[in-house]
Structure formats: C-alpha cells, structure tokens
Task: structure prediction
Amino acid sequence: MKKHIEEFLFFLEVERGISENTILSYQHDLKKFDEYIHDVKKNISKINRDDIVEFLMRLKDIGLSTTTIARNLAALKTFWRFLVEEQIVKENIAGSIETPKTWKNIPEVLSIEEVERLLGAPDEKKLLGMRDIAILELMYATGLRVSEVNGLEVPHVNMDALFVKCYGKGGKERIVPFGKMAESAIKKYLLGVRPKLYAKSGDRHIFLSRLGKKISRQSLWKIIQKYARLAGITKIITPHTLRHSFATHLLEGGADLRGLQEMLGHADISTTQIYTHVNKEKLRKIHKEFHPRA
Result:
C-alpha cells in the first residue's frame, strides 16, 4: 500500500503539477487509510467498497467534521482512479461512494472594530512590529491565504497599481487589489525594514523572518494569534480569520459575489456563498434582539 501511495504522490507532482500543499494533504489522508487497512490486515487487491465506507464511518466516530471526511473520500477517489489507470486494480471502488453532505459551518469573523484593534496592536517603533503591520494590513486588504502570503515575492506586489499577484491552489494565478492603508504599511516595511532583513540572507520573498529568511506559515499564524491577544480579542483566531473577515466585510459593504469569488480564488462560487450565510446569521441575530415578537 505504501509503495502505491508513494507512486501516486510522485504522479501528482510530476505529471499533474499539483501544489505542494495539496500533495501533503493527500499524503496525510491516505496515510490514515493505510493505517486503517493495516489494522484490518488487508492488501490493496482485497480492499472493497465496504472497507472504504467503514473507514469513513470510523472518521465520523472519532469526531471529524463532514468536511474533513469528504476530503478524505476525495483523496481516495483520486487515488483509486490512479490505481485503475495504472492497472494495479480493476475497479474504482471509491468512485461510486456518495460524498457526505457537508454542513456549511459559518466561519468566525472579526467585527470592523476588532480588526482595527488587531491592526493597531503591533508596535511600529520596532522593526518586526512594522513588518507585522504590513502583513496584517495586506492580509485584511486582500483576503490572501496564509500560504499565499508567505509565498509572495517582491515583484508580486505592484506598488504603483496597488495590486498583488498571487498563486493559489493548483498554482492558479490571480490579481487582487489593495488600498491606501495597506500601501502605506507595505511601503514603510519595504523602505525601512526589509533591506535590513534582506542583508542577512538575500531571500527574494517579500516577508522575511528576523534571520532574513522566508517567513513560515507557522510564524504567520503565531503573529495573528499574538496580536489578537494583545488586542483583547477573545474569539478563536485561525489563519483564515482575516480572510473570512475580508470577505464578510466586502459583502456587507455591497460587493458583488462574483467579484468576491475572483478575489478569493474560489473555483466554485458555492464556496464563496458561505459568506452570504454569515450575513444572514447576523441579520437573524439583529432580528431576534430587536423585534418585539422575536
């Protein structure tokens, strides 16, 4: 089983050009299935549809979300399609399994006042504080994923036209504009901070660590959590919180759903539509609080 998984991951990288993050996701999910199959002592030729269904039910029993279970099934479907194409097995036993219906979990978002507090938390008198302001301003201004922010290189940020070029899932390129507040913060960082960090390593990425190297996704997560604490924000903050807030605040301001889909880099508009649920939930709370017969 492990050998076939390795061959599949190599195929995704070389033949399909799948992004590193997606390959790691496949690897993680298929490893779980491999461990399950090892437990029930079955080799790949003897695995049947019921085994996959039982595996998915086990994921459900340990409390994983339907979204995570659906992702695991998608990995298995793609893996088995590969096995059939390579004539390792005769049938895609995962192909006919229905994807679990995923509940649209409403994401946690910050209020505009909370965003202001978060963006005001770093100390701009410190070098890394000025860098962190630029990071937070850009993330809120563009809704970029954390993996997209840490992959940005200097030429990707156009300071004249005020847009950033990023590469999202599957290596798809998109252009996202940003405004004057982000422009000001980024300019201060590029002029006063980055040259000092760049001198330590010569790294081409725009956001650098104190050692002058490309800042990691983990560091970006810690930065967000650090300033959330300093800002007195008690909500659970994840790497996607600023992205969710960006999308929600644009919709509340009257943005077009298709335009938002383009900026977020969603392949399917149904993914973007989750933010219309956020608006509905907010309206429901207002109605419940203020309507006399609610």
Remarks:
- The chain has a mean pLDDT of 89.
- Residues 20-39 form the longest helix (20 residues).
